[in-house]
Amino acid sequence: MLSKTINKSKKLLALFLALVFIAGTFTISAYALTDAEKQEYQKKIEELKAQIEENNKKIAELDEAASQYDDDVSALQDKISVLDDQIDLYNQEIALIDEDINKIDAQIDSVETEINNLNEQIKELDIQLDELEAQKTETYELLGERIRASYMSGASTPLEYLLTSDNFEFQAYLERVELLQRIAEHDDKVVKQLEKNIEDIAVKVTEIEDVKVRLASKITELDEAKKEYEVKKQEQVDARKVVEDAEALIQADLDKVMAIVNGYDRESQQYKDAIDKREDAILELENKLAEKNIYYGSGSTGDMCWPLPYSDVYVSSRFKWRWGKQHNGIDTCRWSGTHGADVVSVKDGTIDVASWGYGGGYGNYVVVNHGEGVVTYYAHLSNITVSPGQRVQKGQVIGQAGNTGYSFGAHLHFGLMINGSWVDPLKYLDGGSTIQCTD
C-alpha cells in the first residue's frame, strides 16, 4: 500500500514538473520573437534610418545652399549698419539744431512779452495824457470865463475907477484886481504844470517807443537767425532722407535674400520634423522589439530597486533619441546633491565590469549581469567599490555617483539591456513610473 502511494506521488510530481516545463515553454513562446519577426522589425528600423540619413543629406544640401548667401547677407547688413550710423549722426545734428531753434524761440517769446508790457505802459500813459489834456482844456475854459466875467462887470482899468468912483469903490477895485491877479497866476501855474506833465508823458512815450523799436529790431535779428537754423535743419533732414532712401533699397535687397534663405530654412525644418517622426517610430519599434523579446523571470514585473536609493531622486534625461542618436538609458540625480551619493545594484547579479572605459564616455562604470539576458550599466561614477566576478545582492552599494567621462554635471547614467537590446529602464524599475522627469 505504501509502495503504491509512493509511486502515485512520484507520478504526480512528474506530472507537475511536466506542466511547469510546458508552462515555461508556453511563456517563452508567448513573448519571444521568431527570427522572421525580428528581421521584419529590423528591416523597418533600417528603412527609417535610411530615410533619416536621406533627410539629413537634404538638410545638409539646403544648409549649403543657404550658406552661399551668408556673404551677401553679411555685406548688406554691414551696409545697413553704416547707413544707420549716418542716420544717427544726422538725427543728433538735427536735435542740436532744434535745441538752438528752441532757444531762439524762447528769446523771441521773452522780447515779445517785453514789448507787450511796454504797450501796456503806453496805454496807461495815453490815458494819463488824455486826462491831463482834459484838465488843461478845462483850466483854459475856466480862465476864459473869469476874463469874460470881469469884462462884463464894468470899468476894468484903474483910470476909470479913479475918475468915476469914490475912494471906497477905488479901494474895492484894487482889491478885486489883486484877487484876479492872484487867480490868474494860480491858473497860469496850473496850466504850466499840466503842460509840463503832458510833456513828460510824451517824453516817456517816446522813450518807450524807442525801446519798442530796438526790441522789434532784436526780434527781426532773432527771426533771421532762426531762419538760418531752419535752413541748416532742412539741409540735414534732406541729407538724412537721401541716406534713408539708400538704406530702404539695401533693406529691400536684404529682404529678398532673406526670403530665399528663410525658404531654405523652412524646407530644412520640414525635413527635421520628418526626422523627428521617424526617430520616434524607430524608438517605438525598438521598444516593441525589446518588450516582445523579454522572457526572463522577475525582471518584467518591475522588481528592480532604484539605483540611487534616496527619496529625492529625479530623472534629468530619459531614454530617447537625443542629439541625433539614441540615449541608451536614463540620467538620474538627487535634488539635495548627487556627487558622492551611493549607487546600488538594482538586482542580484555578478559584476562583469568595474573600471574606466566604454569608449571613455562612461568614465568609471560598472556592469552587472543578472542572468537570463538582463544586464545593467552604471556610468560616470566617482568611485567603484566592487570588482569583476564579485557576486552582489539587490540594493548592495557598488560605487558612488560622480561626473567622470563624457559628463556635464554629477549624475548617474543607468542603462538596461535585455537580450542584447537597450530598453527603457523606467518600465522595469520599482516605482519608475512615479519618478519625476525634468526633461
Q: Helix proportion of residues, in percent?
A: 55-70%
Structural class by SSE content: alpha+beta
User: How many β-strands, per DSSP?
Assistant: 12
Q: How far do the termini sit from each other?
A: 71 Å
Low-confidence stretches: 1-31, 293-301
| Whole-angstrom Rg | 58 Å
Shape: elongated
Instruction: Just name the CATH architecture of the largest domain.
Output: Orthogonal Bundle
Range of strand content: 5-15%
Output the number of helix runs: 5
Largest sheet: 10 strands, antiparallel
Order of helices and strands: HHHHHEEEEEEEEEEEE
Mean pLDDT: 77
CATH topology tier name of the largest domain:
Helix Hairpins
CATH top level class name of the largest domain: Mainly Alpha
What is the domain total for the residues?
3
Structure notes:
The protein is of the alpha+beta class and 439 residues long. The chain has 3 domains: 1-29; 72-258, Orthogonal Bundle (Helix Hairpins); 298-434, Distorted Sandwich (Glucose Permease (Domain IIA)), CATH 2.70.70. The chain is 64% helix and 15% strand. The protein is built from 5 helices and 12 strands. It has helices spanning 2-31, 35-67, 70-152, 158-164, 167-292; strands spanning 313-317, 320-322, 325-327, 330-334, 342-344, 349-357, 363-371, 374-384, 391-392, 397-401, 412-418, 421-423. Strands 1, 4, 5, 6, 7, 8, 9, 10, 11 and 12 form a 10-stranded antiparallel β-sheet that branches. Strands 2-3 form a two-stranded antiparallel ribbon. A hairpin with a 2-residue loop joins strand 7 (363-371) and strand 8. Helix 2 packs antiparallel against helix 5 and helix 3 packs antiparallel against helix 5. The radius of gyration is 58 Å and the shape is elongated.
